[in-house]
Amino acid sequence: MNKRTVAMIDDLAKSDQAISIAALADKYEVSQRTIRNDLVAINDLLLENNLTALALKSGGMIIKGEDFSEVLSITAANDYYSYKLSKEERKMIAAAMLVNSVGYITLSTIADNLLVSRATIINDLDEIKQLIKEGNLEVISHPNKGLRVEGKESDKRWLLFKMSAFEFSQPVTKEQGGAVALPTAMTSVQAGDKITIQKIINEQEHLHENFLTDDSFLKLQRYLGIMISRNMQGEYIETQSRVENSKYPIAQDLMKYISQYCRIKTTEDEVQYLSVLLKNSHYMKHKSSDQDAVRTQMLTRQFIRAISDELEINLNNDYDFFENLSNHLDSMFHSDVSQFPDNPALNEIVEGHPEIQEAVKNQLPILYQRREREINAAEIVYITIHICAAMERKKNREVAFHVIVACHAGIGTSQLLMERLKKHFNFQIVDIISSHEASYIKPDKADFIISTVPLQNCRLDYVVVTPMLSDEDYIRVGNKIDALRNSRNLPSRVEIKDITAKGLLEKIKPVVYKQVPEQAPILMKELRREIRNYFNQSQEAEEEIFAPYLHHLLSERHIEIDVECSDWKDAVRRSALVLLDKGYIEERYIDAMIHNIEENGPYIVLSPGFAVPHDAVEEGSIKVGMSLIRLKTPVPFGAEELDPVEFVCCLSAVDHKTHLKAFFHLVNMLGNKAFHKELHDAKDRAEMAAIIEKYEYSIEE
Questions:
Q1: CA pair distance 598, 600, nearest whole angstrom
Q2: What's 218's domain CATH number?
Q3: Which residues of 87-115 are buried (b: 16+ CB within 10 A; e: fewer)?
Q4: Is 614 a catalytic residue?
Q5: Measured in Å, how far apart are the chain's first and last C-alpha atoms?
């Protein structure tokens, strides 16, 4: 079907009266014979789907069957031209296309992108020009070339920034069959990988101790996407005056890494302009010290391990659970009184899981190592919710459910919800619809619908969630899946997955390490290089750059074996010497680590014979890093059954997050007795580094 045919279906479905062939021919500026041919195509579609065909009456009047509206769900699934823009939406996209265009753009090009006639754009043109004029810009016309926008680059970006926040009345979908669909016309004002941009901002927030509010964070991310798009087109900010600005250092570092990882060139004026934007942003105080955050992460690991043992379900490998719970506990520990209100809706959820709530109460002594204040009933409920959500994620990856996402808000909302669902559930998203389309969906189209609003006259099971998909929402979705499993037989499905470099490497790793364990590290390095070259990826994936793996931090150069130490203090000092010599820490950091253990006890001993001393950034940590020593004679740290300690791994943390992936892997590996034994038996530091890499790549993430 072409876009005219889909538009005709939409016209026929929404009209309360019969429409004539002549009226459609006039509307679409084609002959009546063309309309008749389109009607044949529509009837073919109707008959293929067991729907009543259109009939022609005297005068060329088109008569539709009572079930005709059901065809809308078919065209929505197979064609992306059915979305009808309001005039306001049409003007907004047309203006964005004009402002974002580097050269001239014709009215026909705009009309084709918006799936309307050139005459419609001509009728809108004065209002489009006025919209652009309000941004201190001017539309210039050329008889043979079309239109272009003149004005300062900063004004263009500001107008694009405001337009990019515009919410559409329905979610607009993606490209199909090479044609330019609506989101491309609108979202092309931004470029760059959003995850990479988020990680760069987050990293620089912590390095510069400038923590943006959520609103300012999102605005900065949106601006950087626009800046990258403009720079990629060769458009740069105009000359800026050089003014002293406290935000210049963070602006400089942001631009440095944006340029590197988003592959753009930048200018000093771009840095100056960004520093002004940052100066006008809103910030919040960051009360949690990095030392406290790392300590919380260690206790979180102990807590998760204990909960897993008591409930007899392995939650140790859920990185999202670990990260979310450690952040939650860190916030809880830093308040003198509970900041978490009593929530009847959450209470209702946990009442269905008394065994989990009981397990949390049984393991509270672990958390009291970090906070002496009583953990009240409301806080126990929130902790229980995190555990319930982790259990649902684990359980619901077993079946690839077919799901439709229904939203009442704009493009951004539906895309955000879809990505969060795919991250935490084994779902195949078969369609994204506006909530008002739900009544047209056939029951066999999907297993159920996940919607941000209650649905009217919907014939398919659905569950209502928030766009941010909270832990409570995970549980609601999980409960819906359980109900569906119990009520009917679901088809056995396998999710359709794209082949990626990372996915392929994860499949290969266990096989390589099983078949050729001694040659595996070298072979895996070669395979990673070849596979990433084939997929046109850099040697290190972006998540490795911003969140290094354990074997990146504990390379052969950061390991020493058979070190002689007189006591635990000497062991801490010796473990830190490599980091000190290589400029990762200052000398005062070593004394701070010892003082931390004297003050807070040997909580840094994570498992039998293994300690991870650390302290805060302000105590002399310069770069994220680790160094590991194996003692010739183990020494006691005062950790009772975990003594004596044979391995001491010094951690230099620059914030609460960068080291998290490596630390998560280390703690999981420490639960493996074979890992301990191989480290103990290793003949040299090269062998120890290979053991660490082997076990890190073999653990399930």
A1: 6
A2: 1.10.1790
A3: eebbbbbbbbbbbbbeebbebebbbbbbb
A4: yes
A5: 44
Long-range contacts of 288-291 (CB under 8 A, 24+ apart): 288/330, 288/331, 288/334, 288/656, 289/616, 289/618, 290/616, 290/617, 290/618, 290/621, 290/653, 290/654, 290/655, 290/656, 291/596, 291/614, 291/615, 291/616, 291/619
Residues 456 and 520 in one domain: no
CA distances from 85 to 7, 91, 116, 151, 181 (A): 12, 9, 9, 28, 12
Assigned token pair, 309:
């043992």
In a domain, 495, yes or no: no
pTM of the predicted structure, to 2 decimals: 0.47
Q: Cα 53 to chain center, whole Å?
A: 45
The per-residue pLDDT for range 558-607, each reduced to its tens digit, is 999 999 999 999 999 999 999 999 999 999 999 999 998 998 888 889 88
In a domain, 522, yes or no: yes
> Which is nearest to 668 in space by CA: 310, 308, 328?
308
Same-domain status, 556 and 692 = yes
Instruction: Tell me which long-range contacts 668-675 makes (C-beta under 8 A, separation of at least 24).
Output: 668/316, 668/317, 668/699, 669/550, 669/695, 669/696, 669/699, 670/606, 670/607, 670/610, 671/305, 671/316, 671/607
CATH number at residue 26: 1.10.10.10
Tell whether 169 and 297 lie within a shared domain. Answer: no
- What does R_g of the chain's alpha carbons equal in angstroms? 30
Flag whether 632 is in a domain: yes
pLDDT < 70 positions in the chain = 1-3, 73-86, 165-188, 214, 284-292, 334-343, 345, 370-373, 395-400, 408-416, 419, 422-424, 426, 468, 485-503, 532-547, 699-701
Is 459 in contact with 433 (CB distance < 8 Å)?
Answer: no
One-character DSSP codes across 579-613: HHHTTSB-THHHHHHHHHHHHH-STTEEETTEE--
Selected catalytic residue, list 328, 402, 614, 676? 614
What pLDDT is stored for residue 563 in this prediction? 95
Q: Are 157 and 122 within one domain?
A: yes
Last residue of a domain, one of 78, 110, 141: 78
- Among 371, 395, 419, the domain boundary falls at 395
- Residue 149's pLDDT is 92
CATH for 665? 3.40.930.10
Is position 592 within any domain? yes
* Inter-residue contact 560 to 578 (CB < 8 Å): yes
Secondary structure (3-state) at 372: coil
- Is 226 within 8 Å of 164 (Cβ atoms)? yes
Range of the domain at 54: 3-78
My answer on whether 74 and 100 are in the same domain is no
**Which residues are CB-neighbours of 613 under 8 A, at least 6 positions away?**
572, 575, 576, 593, 594, 596, 597, 604, 648, 649, 650, 651
Q: Which helix (H) or strand (E) holds 404?
A: strand 401-407
174 neighbors 183 (Cβ within 8 angstroms):
yes
Count of domains forming the chain: 7
